[in-house]
Specification:
Layout lengths: L2 H6 L2 E4 L2 E5 H8 L3 H10 L10 E3 L2 H10 L17 E4 H10 L3 H74 L19
Antiparallel strand pairs: 1-2, 2-4, 3-4
Helix pairs in contact: 2-3, 5-6
Length: 194
């Protein structure tokens, strides 16, 4: 699995935003989660607003724990002491101005590429899904039109069959006509008596 795919597997959708959690970021940057959170808190003015970062609620975290396939790090106290931070793409970009090591720069570039790749994938998928929906709608319309046409042809065929039956009956009636008895004609001309 390449680096971008590994990072994409750590991007979650929470509150309608794609985010990365502090403990995943700490693992990628090779620092302790505690140190990452300290750096964020020291530079809180850079992360103001949910478009940069927010702290998960207990319910969000519990739901996420059941969905996560990765092992969530826990403190030596037997559990997490603090709820995780969720950093949006903007928050991760801002994090690069706080963490200035070479490792942080390389990891940040990879994370940005992962967010861009994910956004492109979603845009492509959305376009393909819309095109498929349009094709399905057209196909349904064609099927409906074909059914209507078949019904109309069936009705037309039934009407034509009835008319042909009427014509055949008329022809049959003409060809089977019984000649009517006529009084014998008188011969024309001179009649001999005899």
């Amino acid at each position: 699995m390449n680096e971008i795919t590994v990072i994409q597997n750590k991007i979650y959708e929470i509150r309608g935003q794609r985010v990365m959690l502090d403990f995943d970021l700490a693992a990628l940057y090779r620092v302790e989660t505690k140190r990452l959170k300290e750096a964020i808190r020291r530079n809180a003015e850079r992360f103001e607003g949910e478009e940069f970062m927010f702290e998960l609620t207990e319910q969000e975290y519990d739901r996420l724990k059941t969905d996560l396939r990765t092992q969530i790090a826990s403190s030596s106290w037997g559990g997490r002491r603090y709820l995780p931070f969720a950093l949006t793409e903007l928050g991760v970009a801002m994090l690069s101005s706080v963490l200035r090591s070479n490792t942080a720069i390389m990891i940040n570039r990879a994370i940005m590429k992962a967010f861009v790749a994910m956004r492109n994938y979603i845009a492509t998928t959305t376009t393909v899904t819309a095109e498929l929906a349009e094709i399905r709608a057209k196909l349904a319309l064609l099927e409906r039109t074909d059914a209507d046409n078949a019904e109309a042809i069936g009705d037309l065929s039934e009407d034509m069959r009835k008319e042909f039956d009427t014509i055949y009956d008329a022809i049959a009636a003409l060809s089977v006509r019984i000649p009517q008895a006529r009084p014998p004609r008188r011969p024309i001309g001179f009649k001999r008596q005899g």
